[in-house]
Amino acid sequence: MTVIPSFLRKVTNLTKHHSINLDKARMVISSLNLGVKDPREEVIQAWYMDDSVEDQRLPLHKEPKEFVSLDQLAELGVLSWRLDADNYETDEELKKIREDRGYSYMDFCEVCPEKLPNYEEKIKSFFEEHLHTDEEIRYCVAGSGYFDVRDHTDKWIRVLVKKGGMIVLPAGIYHRFTLDSNNYIKAMRLFVGDPVWTPFNRPHDHLPARTEYIKAFVEKEVGDHTVDAAA
């Protein structure tokens, strides 16, 4: 059952009994800062990056800071959830996501100097810009890290994922990964069928996964902006 805040019920009732336009009332409500926060934002935040050559583990915000909403990430095909990382073994929401999206394979990867063999080589490889021909699904059950993705104009967006955050990077999106200054993440890796972790370092624009991504997200985004400008 949907729970409607009491003040919204009052506004709706007023529109029934008085000559108040409901659309105007909604506009007033939407213009208010109601303090309603998406719970995902506590474990997943995103912003446009400064293209400096500083330590890749730093936040690297632009000045002034330019944040990116989770809805904007979704427009790039990047999906996100907040889940119960302390109870992932019995979490019904995670189970449903896996069933709905066909994520039959699961394992864990710990990235830190002490636990990842060939750490320096691997972390360098992770930070090379690349794409995959399948989705990349990562669920952070401990620690934190940065997933950098390209937007439709080829600018870098840095996505911080903390404990409880799960993201899906679509096949064909250029991206990279690095630890943050905490130097530790434990991530659940999910996959449809047998896992294929092959990275294709940029440029690999000829791959079908890339051309399909361009059609589904980049060209659509550019087209939407063209329509908006003409309106």
Task: Write structural notes for this entry.
By secondary structure, the chain is of the alpha+beta class. It has one domain (39-212): Jelly Rolls, CATH 2.60.120. Helix content is 30%, strand content 26%. The chain is built from six helices and eleven strands. The protein has helices spanning 6-17, 22-31, 70-75, 92-101, 119-126, 208-230; strands at 44-48, 67-68, 79-82, 105-111, 130-131, 136-150, 156-162, 165-169, 175-179, 185-191, 200-201.
How is this fold's topology laid out?
Elements: H1 6-17, H2 22-31, E1 44-48, E2 67-68, H3 70-75, E3 79-82, H4 92-101, E4 105-111, H5 119-126, E5 130-131, E6 136-150, E7 156-162, E8 165-169, E9 175-179, E10 185-191, E11 200-201, H6 208-230
Antiparallel strand pairs: 1-2, 1-7, 3-8, 4-10, 5-11, 6-7, 6-8, 6-9, 6-10
Characteristic terms for this protein:
231 residues, alpha+beta, RmlC-like_jellyroll, dioxygenase
Counted up, domains total 1
Distance between the termini: 38 Å
CATH architecture: Sandwich
Q: Which secondary-structure class do the elements indicate? A: alpha+beta
CATH superfamily: Jelly Rolls
Shape: globular
Strand fraction equals 25-35%
Rg on CA atoms, Å: 21 Å
How many beta-strand runs? 11
CATH fold category name:
Jelly Rolls
CATH class: Mainly Beta
Uncertain residue ranges: 1-20, 22-33
Order of SSEs: HHEEHEHEHEEEEEEEH
Fraction of residues in helix = 25-40%
Total helix count? 6
What would the average pLDDT be, to the nearest integer?
Answer: 86
Biggest β-sheet description:
9 strands, antiparallel
